[in-house]
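STRUCTURE REQUEST FORM
Protein name: ApaG domain-containing protein
Source organism: Miscanthus lutarioriparius
Requested output: structure tokens
Priority: standard
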Amino acid sequence: MEEVVGRGIMVIGGELCSRHWTIRLCDRIVSDVSGGGVIGQYPVLLPGEDEFVYESCTPLPKVPGSVEGSFSFVPGKYVPII
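Status: completed
Returned output:
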């Protein structure tokens, strides 16, 4: 992601600021999780850099079950345009 945000300034990448998960069991919401970052981190994702990888899980005692969610990002790094 690259975007010019002002005269002579460009933003690249994005910083993960929050996440939200909805956990369902047999079509019933059993947990709704929201919070800042992931695993205590707020990674900045930049073009050409290594990806950020983490794992998260939850036990579901019955089937069918599902987890759905989203991540929110803010602009990552401000750089001067040369």
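Reviewer notes: The radius of gyration is 17 Å. Residues 2-80 form one domain.
Form closed.
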